[in-house]
Amino acid sequence: MTQGAGQGPVVRTATLRDFRVPPYAQVPVQGHSEHPQPQPHAPQPQAAHLPHPGDAFPDEEYPEGYTPTERDLPVINRGDTLQVPVTAPADPATAPAPLVGQGPGPGPLYVVGDVHGYLDELLAALREQGLVDEEGHWAAGNARLWFLGDFTDRGPDGIGVIDLVMRLSAEAAAAGGYCKALMGNHELLLLGAKRFGDTPVNSGAGTATFQAAWLLNGGQKSDMDRLQDVHVQWMSRLDAIVEQDGHLLLHSDTTAYLEYGDTIEDVNDTVHEILTRNDADECWDLFRKFTKRFAFRDEGGVNAVRELLAAYGGQRVVHGHSPIPYLLGEVGTEDADGENTGPVVEGPHVYADGLAIAMDGGVTMAGKLLVQQLPLPH
Questions:
Q1: In this predicted structure, which of 80-94, 124-138, 287-301, 343-357 has the lowest mean pLDDT?
Q2: How many Å apart are CA 250 and CA 231, to the nearest integer?
């Protein structure tokens, strides 16, 4: 179930529909009764074989109006898709760390899919690619790293993830590289919950609130308690779309970006202006459009990708947002012994005649947090 105000430990849950606020959530949400102190980020001794918070699955019935994503989102046939395998890393005890970003000129380009608060998994994936060292500091020289958005909600430490990305940005710049991030729909949702709370907004299907939608979509009380002005300012300044080395990077697999400008600069400027105006209804409409998905699949998907590429440049779209397990129809089942069998994600998912690359490995559903160098290998 979604973790909200005053609830217990974080559990791994099925991804919710980001764009629907059910009737029971369309009421003011009561204030939080607990105010835990921020936790230090010093490295902690690791207990042997402790279960990760995300390994648990809820036993309770879903409340009215709460619909798990796997019941709602259509899937595509496996025959229409391609999944890029990723070679298993060598034993870290015997293999030297790879040297990344040590050559002249612009360094190699990497992208990171949706993180959703899973800080430990993020650090492990970055280490595996040689982008950070054992202490989590930038180790990739002039490499270029882009996060595709959705840093918070559902997982245990969204603010820790944002703090890490902000620190890596400074460390990478000092080393001659860079670490940058794009705006995801969950950044818009967290900003809205912080700024507007229970203020009613016109959702197009009745009255809703950012606070209710944030809780419904995995908002964590610990993140809200630790959210500071520096985090709000950083998220508010994120771009929505960028082109790098022939790859059009964006968060959501939607053509809604076209509604905000004819060029990449226009889109980013428009998004920043909306957030600066701070109008609840306008921000809600932006959030709602950025939750749209699956524009690049099935009939018409190839044309949708080409429309974006024609407007903004690039040869391929690289996105997060829609988990690869849903695109592949592998959302996990229970075997005869009652054990959950999570989806198998080996790497990025290439589809739409090779024009689209999906990077959300489904870490919130026992999938994999993806960090991938571009261009992809053949």
A1: 80-94
A2: 21
